[in-house]
Every structure is written in structure tokens, then in C-alpha cells.
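Might you be able to review the protein record set out just below?
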Amino acid sequence: MSNLTPEELFDFHRELCDEARELMTRKNSDYTNSNKDEAPNCFANFTRCHDMGICSTEQGFLVRMTDKLSRLSTFAQSGELQVKDESVRDTILDVINYSVLFMGYLKQIGESSACCQEAQGTLFASSVIGEES
């Protein structure tokens, strides 16, 4: 096994992220609101947690991410996964996409929440997504 060069790692990163983006594009229509008269809600699958009184939307993201991290932890300990139709790569792609979705949600609520802006004296999004105020 040879070591990856930085260029090979960056190429692999691009490949993995491109694959994750394509997967998100395909799956998004399955999880967004199904009412064709409304604008799509990219986060509908997660906001339903709050709407149903299960947990906050943010916690909904974290629960799904924790499920995936638990699968990866099991793999790291045993070297195999029992569910054969989801590979380690599939699980990592899901973690990437849940991370992007969570960050997108935080960006959305930060940009639309005046109470958060006033409470912190700056744009909420600046502390969440690293933008300068």
C-alpha cells in the first residue's frame, strides 16, 4: 500500500464530493415536500422531526448523522457491516450529505432569523458558517 500524495488525496476528495452531490440531487426529491403547489423544502425530512414533536430540527440532523457514525464505528471495530446493501462508502457519502444539509439549514435559519441576529449583535450565519460580519 503506497501513500497518497496530496494531489491524489485532493482528487479523491473531489471525486467523493462529486459523488455525494449527485446522490443528494437524486435523493432530494424523495425527501422534500411532495405538494407540487409549494416550493420545494430541501430540509422537509428534518423539519418533520420538529413538526411531529419528536425533537428539534437540528437534533434530527444529528440523530441521522449519529446513526451513520455508529455504522462506521461498528465497521472500524469488526471490519464488516451486516447490512450488505449499504457499503462503507455509501455511509460516508451519507455523512457528507447530512453535513452539507445541516450546514445549509443553519445558513438558512441564520439568514432569516432576526431574533438571532439581534441576540448576538451580529449575523448568526457569521458564527455558524465563518463569514465575516
